[in-house]
């Protein structure tokens, strides 16, 4: 369900963020890039591409007169592979929006490319806090958590702090 909502958001973002004339070839192309064959393929992988296609169908893009195409690729958890895929997608295949990319190293590389090419990147799994910090871009939406928020939230939720002596006789 979360993936469907993410993909529907990507379609809506592509429609609202760009004038119809700016959409390449009159088709909104969404590139779903993740680990399709390795360690993390069960978390995102080919299922994310299927979920994106289902989200477009649920959204009713065709009934609204929109042509939406979903493409998928395996970044193999390598920033250079991901960068090459994104450049090819944007330069040759006219992809308008990049989504998913749950590997932080690849997401940081993609972030730079979409900024340079003025495209849209919806991050739904990478946790690098640089995506919302030092490498923040107006072209990237960091949809979920980041490592700073995860660590800070967990650390500040500790309401029962024990002294260094680990004296457990004190009540919280």
List keywords for this structure.
172 residues, alpha/beta, Rossmann fold, globular, disordered C terminus
Supply the CATH architecture.
3-Layer(aba) Sandwich
Radius of gyration: 19 Å
Envelope shape: globular
Number of self-contained structural domains: 1
Describe how the helices and strands are arranged:
Blueprint: H1 2-17, E1 28-34, H2 45-59, E2 68-74, H3 79-91, E3 97-100, H4 104-117, E4 120-123, E5 140-142, H5 147-156
Parallel strand pairs: 1-2, 1-3, 3-4, 4-5
How would you portray this structure in words?
- There is one protein chain.
- By secondary structure, the protein is α/β, with parallel strands linked by helices.
- Helices cover 40% and strands 15% of the residues.
- It has one domain: Rossmann fold.
- A five-stranded parallel β-sheet has the order 2-1-3-4-5, with helices on both faces.
- The longest helix is centred in the N-terminal third of the chain and has 16 residues.
- The chain is globular and about 50 Å long.
- The C terminus is likely disordered.
Q: Could you give a short description of this structure?
A:
With 172 residues, this protein is an alpha/beta fold. The chain is 40% helix and 15% strand. It has a 5-stranded parallel β-sheet with strand order 2-1-3-4-5, sandwiched between helices.
